[in-house]
Design goal:
Length: 179
């Protein structure tokens, strides 16, 4: 059942209509098979990226859709109505892109954001640990500085996109002062 939505612009209305169309034509026909077989839907992220649905809350200058968060969240609602697991995966992927957008250099953003926001590379979010769940204050995983980066020790669990992701956001402690 379609929901009457309060959207800020005609462009936003068109994006929600596009999201519904993609969800109905691409997601709905394959959801039952993938859920029954517990398989990852290869190619879905490429399709969602090509439609511009992975980049909605990011600035246009970096390959994003330039939409307010309220539009992005309503697009997620349309996806979740057809396939909740894919909507969660889209949300996590978008979240995984955020650190580069917020803290990356312009060179890094130019190099990686278009592929990330276009769905050609998939992001994972590695916060949870077996003993801590998603309680960031209780993390035990450590990242120790080395000459060429960091050495990470510890265990992560329940990583969304684990095993299929191209890049991972890993949360770890970097020193005694980080406790």
């Amino acid at each position: 059942m379609a929901v009457d939505r309060l959207l800020p612009s005609d462009e936003a209305r068109d994006l929600i209509a596009l999201t519904r169309d993609v969800a109905d034509k691409v997601l709905a026909p394959i959801v039952d098979e993938h859920e029954k077989n517990e398989t990852y839907p290869e190619g879905v992220f490429d399709t969602l990226g090509e439609a511009g649905l992975l980049s909605l809350p990011y600035p246009e200058e970096w390959g994003g859709g330039g939409q307010p968060y309220e539009v992005y969240l309503q697009a997620l609602e349309e996806l979740v109505a057809r396939w909740a697991a894919v909507a969660v995966a889209v949300s996590v992927h978008s979240l995984a892109c955020h650190p580069l957008m917020a803290f990356g250099t312009d060179e890094q953003k130019h190099r990686w954001l278009p592929e990330m926001l276009g769905g050609h590379t998939i992001g994972a979010y590695s916060l949870s640990e077996p003993q801590a769940g998603s309680d960031a204050a209780a993390l035990a995983c450590k990242a120790t500085p080395t000459d060429d980066g960091y050495r990470v020790t510890g265990a992560k669990a329940w990583i969304t996109h684990g095993g299929v992701a191209d890049f991972y956001n890993l949360f770890a402690r970097t020193g005694e002062g980080s406790y």
